[in-house]
Design goal:
Layout: E1 4-10, E2 24-33, H1 34-41, E3 47-59, E4 64-77, E5 80-91, E6 95-104, E7 107-117, H2 120-125, H3 127-136, E8 140-149, E9 163-175, E10 180-193, E11 196-208, E12 211-220, E13 223-232, H4 242-246, E14 250-260, H5 261-264, E15 271-283, E16 288-301, E17 304-316, E18 319-327
Antiparallel strand pairs: 1-2, 2-3, 3-4, 4-5, 5-6, 6-7, 7-8, 8-9, 9-10, 10-11, 11-12, 12-13, 13-14, 14-15, 15-16, 16-17, 17-18
């Protein structure tokens, strides 16, 4: 089935200089096959589904208003099926408002809302000037991940087969299109992967005038396993400048607090003992400096005692070195 398209247009041509004349556009398209549309456009993507499109434009050539909606039904990406989405755009005058909703197997898992000033009449009469002004206009957007059940995507579209848990997130974007600012949080709870159980993780990130900042951590069975903090001293609008990014101040700290391996180890790898460590990365992306240290005490793997171990490594100015010290358990002879 190739879908249907129905359109009605009432436009004064040319539009220039006829701002007071009425305009009317009505477009309806239903059940458009995504695979065929992509094949005709060129890209070979593993996407399936049916698109629906509605568009209504009214008012005058100088002050039009528009409303549009795009829907995806019976969507699939590779072997991940049951995808759906709705994109609604409302531009009644001086402001454009966008709402996006995504579903998996009928359950809403993602939502996006964005607002920006946009005068459609200016976009028609002076497109280049209107687009330049839009880059400097205030922007506000929110993105939410709504209790995504990882088990629903396990083993599909490249996801691991034995993954589970609930992933939630929220982000807010402000500033302008040319100089965005934002904050985001991401939370993973009740997760499992392979033999690992009760995995949790948090991530908080911000992008502002001081640069990019992120902090977070990982827990296993309620025990802190990893703590992370990272900063890159570059404003978001300069990320596209390769030279500026390469020389931006960089700081990454990863800490493994003293943790009992027997409590957090997966079922497939019986471990005992404790481990702790720290990794610090400084310098710049072009010239990083790395210092790492890891220590294990009374480590036992599958019932075989390995003793104590300490390892350290350093890298700076293109050169690195490492040290390893082992203290195997003592053996008593009789």
């Amino acid at each position: 089935e190739g879908g249907t398209v129905d359109a009605e247009l009432e436009l004064p041509l040319p539009l220039a200089g006829r701002g007071r004349e009425p305009v009317r556009v009505r477009l309806r398209a239903g059940a458009l096959p995504i695979a065929e549309l992509l094949a005709s456009a060129g890209p070979d993507l593993p996407a399936q589904g049916k698109l629906g499109i509605t568009l209504e434009v009214s008012g005058t050539a100088g002050a039009p208003s528009a409303a549009a909606e795009i829907t995806l039904a019976d969507g699939a990406w590779e072997d991940l099926e049951g995808l759906g989405a709705t994109v609604a755009v409302d531009a009644p005058g001086a402001t454009a408002h966008v709402l996006v909703s995504g579903t998996i197997a009928g359950r809403r898992v993602a939502a996006v809302e964005a607002t920006a000033p946009l005068e459609l009449g200016d976009l028609v009469e002076r497109p280049a000037e209107a687009l330049r002004a839009l880059r400097r206009a205030p922007l506000h957007a929110t993105v939410s991940l709504l209790s995504l059940d990882l088990a629903a995507v396990a083993g599909r579209a490249g996801a691991p087969r034995d993954i589970a848990g609930i992933l939630e997130g929220h982000a807010e974007v402000a500033g302008t299109v040319a100089a965005p600012r934002g904050r985001a949080t991401l939370v993973l709870s009740g997760a499992r992967y392979g033999g690992w159980r009760e995995i949790g993780a948090t991530l908080d990130a911000s992008a502002g005038d001081p640069g990019l900042v992120a902090s977070g951590g990982v827990t296993i069975q309620g025990e802190p396993a990893i703590r992370l903090r990272a900063t890159v001293g570059i404003r978001p609008e300069r990320l596209g400048d390769g030279a500026a990014l390469a020389t931006a101040p960089l700081r990454i700290e990863v800490e493994v607090p003293r943790i009992a391996l027997g409590r957090v180890a997966g079922q497939d790898l019986p471990l005992e003992g404790t481990v702790e460590g720290r990794v610090v990365v400084g310098g710049t992306p072009r010239a990083p400096e790395v210092h790492a240290a890891l220590a294990g005490s009374r480590v036992t793997v599958q019932g075989h005692p390995l003793g104590d171990a300490k390892a350290s490594a350093r890298y700076s100015r293109g050169r690195g070195d490492a040290e390893l010290a082992l203290s195997p358990p003592s053996v008593a002879f009789r």
